[in-house]
Design goal:
About 45% of the residues lie in helices and about 10% in strands. The chain contains six helices and two strands. The chain has helices at about 10-15, 30-35, 40-50, 55, 75-90, 110-125; strands at about 65-70, 95-100. The protein starts with 7 loop residues before the first helix and ends with a helix.
């Protein structure tokens, strides 16, 4: 994901490879990103994979609603599709909703209403 997101340094921070104290003068991690990203070894990459939701997807048994904004630059959309299809292959009840004009946060009123309605219907379908 670090190579496909618009904030690759976030991946390194979340995995513990960068500390907040390593922020650049401009307040972002990009100053140190290349130093760490291009020096990742097999152990680091393995640790990153083990922190990924896809590593744990086989443990998921709970019905899951996946919402994707196609313009998302934070989390690559293929991650959501991969998670959804892996749930399906594991026979976990899952619904996928894709919003063409939305980013990481579903923000337009029309889309937010749609998410709330579909969320309520999904919840009702699994509790009835």
């Amino acid at each position: 994901m670090a190579s496909a997101t618009d904030i690759p340094s976030w991946c390194l921070v979340e995995c513990g490879f960068l500390e907040e104290g390593e922020l650049g003068e401009d307040g972002i991690w990009y100053n140190h990103f290349e130093k760490h990203y291009f020096n990742l070894n097999e152990e680091n990459l393995s640790a990153m994979f083990k922190m990924s939701p896809i590593f744990y997807v086989d443990n998921v048994k709970t019905p899951t609603m996946v919402v994707i904004g196609k313009q998302d630059k934070r989390v690559p959309i293929f991650n959501g599709f991969q998670f959804h299809y892996k749930l399906k292959s594991n026979n976990v009840l899952t619904k996928l909703y894709v919003y063409d004009d939305e980013c990481h946060s579903i923000s337009s009123l029309k889309s937010r209403i749609d998410v709330w309605i579909n969320g309520a219907l999904f919840f009702k379908s699994i509790t009835s």
